[in-house]
Design brief:
Blueprint: E1 11-12, E2 24-26, H1 28-35, H2 55-67, H3 70-73, H4 89-103, H5 111-122, H6 133-145, H7 157-171
Parallel strand pairs: 1-2
Helix pairs in contact: 2-4, 2-5, 4-5
Amino acid sequence: MNTFDHLLNWTLKRGSHPFPGLDGGTCINEAALVAAGFEYKPIRTVESMPECFSRPICRLAMMLNDYANDTDRQRLLPYVTRLACADTPEVEAERAAYIHRYTQSHYLLPFEIGLEVLEGALAIGRQADAFPAEEVKVRMATVQAQATTPTSVPDTPLFAKIKKWLTTKETA
């Protein structure tokens, strides 16, 4: 975990956030966006991620992020720098099939199994380019310094409900 010390001041939270707070306070995909050097934006759907991010992997990461408790969610921090690993359509389909195969039998996926599936999916195809730790630290700190609140404010409750309904149907 030493290589992720720079992320320890960033708190992962459930749902999407218009802008991070001084604590970070974003979902895993929003944090990954910043870590990869993109301008911050709320990520309400995986399709909002830049093309260099693997859709199936980001979808699984979002699901784990949103259904984890606050303690387990922080265990996703080491994955923030690994999501920008999009590959060919064939590899992305293989990742999606792998994720589906290991998650379809779980109505509510236990977090430990979800992490194992995430690791397995990340092992398929292209790996994310290694971001120098100092660059990531500067990127994350720069965004945090622009925060106007101590903690991030989640999207509206109505949007969160709609997202939960869509996610539930999508994984069912």
